[in-house]
Design a protein that fits this description.
single chain; 117 residues; mainly alpha; Four Helix Bundle (Hemerythrin (Met), subunit A); 0% strand; elongated
Amino acid sequence: MDFERAIAAHVEWKTKLRGAIVSQSALDATAAAKDNVCPFGQWLHGEARSKYAHLADFSTCMQAHATFHREAGRVAALINARQYGEATAALDANSPYAKASMDTTVAITKLRREIGA
């Protein structure tokens, strides 16, 4: 697993969401909310689960990643509902989305360290 790429891909979600707000374009909120669709999520739910489920940081990473995708899906749904002000606020620094994003980055980093990758 390319952990740096996984972190970057999740950080890029904010740019994607902001871009959709600016362009007022719809996103697939259902897919955004699923934590097993992105490459990292597929790895977590597949190979990583079979190899690392016993590790404390694995469970934390699974939870943080799932929360991140729920929040991304929630913001995407606001965009799709044309609630651009609310969607913008949902991306603010102290928002649940921002917390979930930071928690996911930290969790990926800790899991990477724990498995020695």
